[in-house]
Design brief:
About 30% of the residues lie in helices and about 45% in strands. It is built from 3 helices and 6 strands. It is globular.
């Protein structure tokens, strides 16, 4: 949501955007203590399936490596198969599962993926 996006900017997280006339994609990550954490990555539905999510992810991976982090972590919904495929293609491995991480209202679990450097 726009509110979550603005809150992340206020606390000085790393942020990247994709835009033409309007912003159509963004990624937000936290870097520190030897780790990077992908907090959010999103591409407008009208632009999905064109490689923009992968482009943002590759940028985050490059930045995390440049900052000498040991790994990049992220959470994803089990129902988000497209995102999981992108992460697996980039070399992420399933680390754990966080019960009822997302919600309310659904209380969906989160899959935790890690890319070790």
């Amino acid at each position: 949501s726009p509110g979550v996006f603005l809150d992340c900017l206020k606390v000085d997280y790393e942020c990247w955007v994709l835009r033409s006339d309007d912003v159509f994609g963004y990624a937000i990550a936290a870097l520190g203590a030897g780790e990077a954490h992908l907090l959010n990555i999103a591409v407008a539905p009208s632009k999905q399936g064109r490689g923009f999510g992968g482009q943002l992810l590759r940028k985050i991976i490059r930045v995390a490596r440049e900052e000498d982090t040991e790994r990049l972590l992220l959470e994803v919904r089990p129902s988000n198969l497209r995102a999981q495929a992108i992460y697996q293609k980039a070399g992420f491995e399933l680390l754990s599962r966080r019960p009822r991480y997302y919600g309310p209202p659904q209380k969906e679990d989160a899959l935790v993926y890690a890319l070790e450097f």
